[in-house]
Each structure stands twice: as structure tokens, then as C-alpha cells.
Amino acid sequence: MIAPSNTYKIYLATTPVDFRKGMDGLANYVLSNFDLDPLSGAFFVFRSKGRDKIKILMWDGTGLVLVYKRIEGAGFVWPKLSEGTISMTKAQFEARFEGLDWRRVESANYHHPRLAKAGA
Predict the structure, then answer these.
(1) Which among 108, 75, 92 is positioned nearest to 3, based on CA atoms?
(2) What is the pTM of this model?
């Protein structure tokens, strides 16, 4: 799998798309429905009506890349249907790709270490 780095933006389309669309059709969908640039290097995640398939579109600097995955079983966990996109973290994206409930993925609470004062 092509895994995004922490610097990539990841957008999840919240409504199902026609899965007959290829990379050019999905790129046009991004332009016309989200007013985003499909050649920005961001990951665009699309769902099927049946909740069991995803397509991921991204520009890798040399061309468009399209990843298609069908998951067996109950399908992917999706947010309620609405218009637009939802931004996701890398960890949420990876959980979704594995078929996990991405909504339960949270960052750990990290505490910034305090420097010891001189002479203490």
C-alpha cells in the first residue's frame, strides 16, 4: 500500500461515488464538487454505495495513482451521509484501510518534557 506521510492531507468524500469512474473521472469530481486540486498531492478517499469498497486517488508528483480495495465482511465504517469532505489523520486513514473503526483512533496525550533549571 502507498502510505501517506504526516505532511499529506487526506480527504474523505462523505457521499458514495459512481465506482465506474476512473482516475480522470474522480479527479474531475474533486475539482467540481470539492473545489480542491486533485494534483495537490493530497489523498482523496471515495466510498461505494455498498460500503465495502474504497478508491483512493492521489498525485505522486509524476502521475495520478488510483488504489482500489474491496473488504470482506461487514464493510468499512463510514460517517453519516452528508455533502462535502472530512479531513482525516494518517492514523485514521490507515485504520480505515485496514477495515477498523477509524473514529476510535485518537492521538495519545504526549507531555512536553521540562528542562531542569541550572543549579537545581
Answers:
(1) 92
(2) 0.69
